[in-house]
Amino acid sequence: MRHLTALFAATLAGAALGASSLTAPARADVPGFALSITAPATFQAGGNAKTVTAVATSDQARCRKVRWTLVVRGGEVPLNRIGVTRVEDSGEFPTQVSVNGDTATIVDQQLDPGTLCRNRTVTGKWQLRVSGNDGGEVGLEVRAADAVNTQLTSNTATTEVTTKVATASPTPKPSRTTASPSAEPTEEEAEDEPTEAAVKPPVNTTSATALVPASAGQSNLLGPGLIVGGVFFFLGLLLLLRLRARTKEARREAGTLPTGFYTMP
Question: Would you indicate the residue range of the signal peptide (predicted)?
């Protein structure tokens, strides 16, 4: 999402679905509609993004377009540590985000590409990532509305953010003294030496953006504005120095006496 898309690139979709728990369909707000949520049972704080999937069904003869809304309730986990990206098969899907306290509401700017009909479902997907180290519970609610924003159905789920386990660095071993400089290390000593692969920490990559309050009044134009202002300042200073040099040159030329040749009488 471009507003918070935000703290917040690779999503282990298979792992997310494998570790997920399917909630029972919620009672539809409009008769004839239902919705189920597939959400990971746990998120690893500071880990990779996982996928939340919602599937809407209908037993009505009339087909409808759907607009998705995801509500994230942080509570124990601050919103600025939760990253959400709405995705479709074509890539990232544009959304609008509003924040009220510890609750963020993420609404699709466009209708879902699919059409909800009898015997035909519509699916919405979101990639979630939690940064930091501490854990806690996060509440999720998915709502499906039609083209005129009439809420058809909704459902809720909760997921647990597990605390990130800190990995201690290997303790350096004391240097050994040998009787001869040319002595070869024994087989036991060679096995005790830590390898580069064991010491190198894992690298996590993700593109989800943090949920930060949209009403905090922070402007994303501050950085570009400072850069543009600096450029204009140096251009003005350069122009001023150039004009000053030209003025001094003109004064010097005006004060120089003309040189000529005179004949002796």
Answer: 1-28
